[in-house]
Write a structure and sequence with these properties.
With 473 residues, this protein is an alpha/beta fold. 38% of the residues lie in helices and 19% in strands. The protein is globular and about 65 Å long.
Length: 473
Amino acid sequence: MAGSGVFAEILDGDVFKYYTDGAWKTSSSGKSVPIINPTTRSTQYKVQACTQEEVNKVMETAKTAQKLWAKTPLWKRAELLHKAAAILKEQKAPIAECLVKEIAKPAKDAVTEVVRSGDLVSYCAEEGVRILGEGKFLVSDSFPGNERSKYCLTSKIPLGVILAIPPFNYPVNLAVSKIGPALIAGNSLVLKPPTQGAVAALHMVHCFHLAGFPKGLINCVTGRGSEIGDFLTMHPGVDCISFTGGDTGIAISKKAGMVPLQMELGGKDACIILEDADLDLVASSIVKGGFSYSGQRCTAIKVVLVMESVADALVEKVNAKLAKLTVGAPEDDCDITPVVTESSANFIEGLVTDAKQKEATFCQEYKREGNLIYPLLLDNVRPDMRIAWEEPFGPVLPVIRINSVEEGIHHCNASNFGLQGCVFTRDINKAILIGDAMETGTVQINSAPARGPDHFPFQVNFPTPLLKKKLMP
């Protein structure tokens, strides 16, 4: 059970505590924030509603701890990270239970997230020692007009206090992807977990606590965004903000001070399918890429752009696979589980209603039970439909039929989003050329988009193309 066993001290009555200065504490506000189980739509957990004054104290604690941590040898930092990783994997069952109840993640996927997170923490320790153990030596006469009279030695130093804000869909994995690199580099950390996923994050933080990190180095505050959200992101004690989520990131970028920002926001990941593609591979990739975890992934396929000549055959294959997906509770390891909140389900329904009014072809009957939305493929979607451009973050996928590759690239590049994309073709030369033309951060060839493996670079597009990677399984 969550909050029991080694986690008993993180619970105060029926409210989970927040973490700072090496201890679990109850907020002076006397208030809590409810966490609604997406499946039952009733309150599952409660977390502390921290005050602004408590945030101030947390920031002071983090800044003091960071100064000492920066002087800690690399090998010692790595040693503690490896210890935390081992504890995290040992405690995978209770943390996975939280993921099932807070974000309706299928049980097997919840366990995988925790184990994967432990592996990532260990990887950060290893890579950190390697990368941070190296400096760069420059000589002056490599630049015109200079003699070899000066030498420059550069090395990497920590930024200070990192504010880490992960999203609901991977509240453990995308938290440690920020925590691991921050800690090995000598920074301290203030974690503000998402409301849905906060209890799993608190359990994860306790694993770091049990590993024996110095007091004040890792902190986790919970509360209402209206009370402490802007206060955190605009706090003068923050030296860097790492945020993963949606439109909130735009507001953060406008309000934050002159600090480095690391952000990964929404996506409308395009899947371009050429006439020579292996349609069985494409269909499997679309179902996995578009519908796993009910489409609630930034890297999920969000729009299918398929050549007209093969569209009928592809849609038939995808529909056959969708019919085999199980729909129901995350405890039962169903393929499609409830979306995270009622407001999310309502937003998805709004996109579906718009598509229906504008006469998209419904390949399945639209069906909703509370927060549970059954998988739906929408064919013959046109650019005047909202679903063609907006991100549903749910198990609804639009198919747009195209008559040329250029048409598909144009639709991809006309999007306000630029996260990931994929191309399916047997012609590797075409694949690379199309990938280069797609204004998206990462392009996968003959494979569905994905963030992992976690040690691969995860490029995003802001707002014009940066780096791309081409992956061929």
